[in-house]
Amino acid sequence: MIHKKRQAQATPESLHQIFTIPEAPDSTLGRIEAEISQNLNGFLANHIVATEKPLAEIEKDFADSKIPEQPQYVSDHTHHLLDKLISQSVHTSAPSFIGHMTSALPYFQLPLSKLMTGLNQNLVKIETSKAFTPLERQVLGMMHRMVYQQNDGFYQQWMHSAEHSLGAFCSGGTVANITALWVARNTLLKPEGEFTGVAKQGLVKALKHYGYDDIAILVSERGHYSLKKAADILGIGRDNVIAVKTDTNNRINLSALKAECKRLKDNNIKLMAIVGIAGTTETGSIDPLTEMAEIAKQYQCHFHVDAAWGGATLLSNKYRSLLAGIELADSVTIDAHKQMYVPMGAGLVVFKNPESVAAIEHHAEYILRKGSKDLGSHTLEGSRPGMAMMVYASMHIISRPGYEMLINQSIDKAKYFADLIDCEADFELVSKPELCLLTYRYVPQVVQQYLQTANSQQRSEINDLLDQLTRFIQKRQRESGKSFVSRTRIEVEKYDGSKVSVFRVVLANPLTTNEILDEILKEQKLLAAESLQFLPQVLSKVLKS
Amino acid sequence: MIHKKRQAQATPESLHQIFTIPEAPDSTLGRIEAEISQNLNGFLANHIVATEKPLAEIEKDFADSKIPEQPQYVSDHTHHLLDKLISQSVHTSAPSFIGHMTSALPYFQLPLSKLMTGLNQNLVKIETSKAFTPLERQVLGMMHRMVYQQNDGFYQQWMHSAEHSLGAFCSGGTVANITALWVARNTLLKPEGEFTGVAKQGLVKALKHYGYDDIAILVSERGHYSLKKAADILGIGRDNVIAVKTDTNNRINLSALKAECKRLKDNNIKLMAIVGIAGTTETGSIDPLTEMAEIAKQYQCHFHVDAAWGGATLLSNKYRSLLAGIELADSVTIDAHKQMYVPMGAGLVVFKNPESVAAIEHHAEYILRKGSKDLGSHTLEGSRPGMAMMVYASMHIISRPGYEMLINQSIDKAKYFADLIDCEADFELVSKPELCLLTYRYVPQVVQQYLQTANSQQRSEINDLLDQLTRFIQKRQRESGKSFVSRTRIEVEKYDGSKVSVFRVVLANPLTTNEILDEILKEQKLLAAESLQFLPQVLSKVLKS
């Protein structure tokens, strides 16, 4: 008998089935699900191909622009996903994947995410989220308290108040930063007399009313790119996000900041916000927040702290003081999907003043009616899933002391790795870890010595070559698939403040061990040796010149 | 022997466990997961309490602002979630929940969502998403083709081009609308001569350079509230989103639109965009898109179509023509988490011109480098989960003809319900369904007759009373927990264009049957009878006056 391949068909019955008949445990998708539930890391290690396939090759599998006319059985499609998508995805939770801010997740997040999908709540309004609304308000309250440490009475008064909000939950740090600066802009250019406010009348009339030639935002040159994006969106303009120089420790230079404030004032450009960074994306450095708050006060501008990465450090009693002054901020961005180990899509901003969100409030006839507690009346996004549940569950299951252990471990691990790099003659530690981030590069010892005495032109030439070397090692290491560090370019003071390419490492994955870090350096040394086969002529030419 | 309650403790070992040891199938969370997998609707029906608890009561369970110092076992916390959160959530997928745009989901979305969480990709860049990046580009290509129907060559050329994008995937329609209008603003106020563009220099310098007194957006009075929000965020101002009158059929009045265009021009206010609606949120009506495109062309402005709800209708060969003219739009918003039956958090905007996104492009040193295919270089959001996989899977498993059946069924069901209402002497159909939305209200027949002959003042008084009745019925029906319709206020031409409160119904859930619709009307009649016990005196007073 010839085996005939089954062919799926779209019929009213088959459609009814996909909405009413569960995936069988022994179906392909059912088996995958069981495998993920029982051994996620094993599943990923087995199904994700380690060595890198060129993107152009992968794209061939995703080239059809027609929506299929022929339905697929779930099992057939699952095989397709395994074969073409999952095999070529990135093992972001691998302990040797230390290049970006993704990490392993606690196991309980997996079934919870399925529960969230099954409930399919929409947090924009109470009518489609009910208890999820007070839950999200509580999560915002907890995060607010973590930052601002107000007393019980404060939270009793404001946490569930319809006309107020302690913050806004959103999909991530970028939206959180935009929301904070949106509030700052609308508060600065608020209604006054006949002027009904920037929210209603727009920026042109607002600046005219207040008599400013322009408005600006100050942040260190390590500021996240989302701040320029925010300025673009908000109509302020990217050029009006002015990058202030950093010191050798990658923190904002306070004299330079003060000078900028004065320059703006002298030019009738109103300073809208100063942004402090608590954990820069590239080096994990923390700005001097207390001093910045003081300057913001003096210039009567909004003080925002971008703690998307570093905010969770507040959960550590040992390291909390690194962020001293954060409680002086008018708004603070924190990503729960970073150091709070929640899946992608959980960011938030908290506001010191529960009335701040009034500046961005909006209403509609069918939802978000005045006086309602609908969360959508003061969020940038509209419909949103119940991600707050994932943060809530993590805070209860891991608890504050559990988070402290995780945070402390990460910082200790970064210090270990920094020491390791320092002990290696052929590596140069470029930024020391304040939190669990650091940057470094491979520089043969002889070149390091040369760099110390070289003149500016010579240093620049050598650094160009070293940049090539860094890019080569990083790319080859990524392609070989055992481990991953990222790379970036940062200004280094000892090289006349010019940008050099560096390896960037984020040590937040609790499963990353010291042995893995040893291995990563070893692999880089081997790759460097490989590349030095063709680099030395060039290098020696420069060294001789 | 006294049973001692176990107490969880945060130790390095317990933390290591939650990252490495899966939830056991017989654990509380494991059992819940199995229940959801085997019978989601049963699980929700069993665990969500039907009758409504006052929000103030629920808030008491979410009142603690302290992050716990004491960890909870996963099983204990799961019991807590079941008891306090899930029991008081909303059964958004119930077939009798026809008040909002949430629906039942296909079963395969549940295990897929878990897979997505397990993979925890970050779509902002290829380094954390690899094959998910071409997959998302393919999904955008498919949606683009659904709207614009270009040929194979077009998609081969642009779908995977690093410097181009056919759209932007995002968390929902609001972000999609903001993104579209952001592109429109930046394209209108682009660099020219010494002016380097609004993205860099901001709105004030941009308007000065181009010599406009202001810029504005035109949309019908049925436009979604996110458009005003977008105008606020983008610095244009909510007042500059000008609401154009609709006709009796809830479509934009073209003469009024033309008059507005002229008025703006005469006042040196540059028309930035005309927004057409393909499926208004309140009534599901579709604007005359072809004619609007013609007007937009005449005034050389961006033409955006908000098809967040109605866009999926393009999958139906039978009803596709309802959206004729959408292919003339410069940008189109579509929510996959609405009529494409994907879980919350999947919206997108497509652009006719693959070069449009250049207007909002941005780069950073550590990611989104020039020439990279990182999706984050032209999205409003930064880090984003791999939701595009859910859309991709649905398009393959359901297929275009499957979607057509779902769409057609929904529209047919709405027509059935409209007929049902029309046949009931005591109900008034306020807006007929074009798609699967309709609005109506309860008006005793005698009052309907009176309204026909009443003068304007009398009509207004009666309508105020009827508004109370509508609110009463809707609230009681929601509270009793068997079914849910929403309510809104819309302008009704025959009542002198004044706003009246109406029931609003969305019939997208494939599991909603005609019998359920019959029941919902019956319940409303009973509730009306109940309320008329106290209303008649007031009514008769008005009727007699």
From TrEMBL, chains A, B:
InterPro entries: Asp_decarboxylase_pyridox, PyrdxlP-dep_de-COase, PyrdxlP-dep_Trfase, PyrdxlP-dep_Trfase_major, PyrdxlP-dep_Trfase_small. Pfam families: Pyridoxal_deC. Its cofactor is pyridoxal 5'-phosphate. This is Pyridoxal-dependent aspartate 1-decarboxylase. Keywords: Decarboxylase, Lyase, Pyridoxal phosphate. Belongs to the group II decarboxylase family.
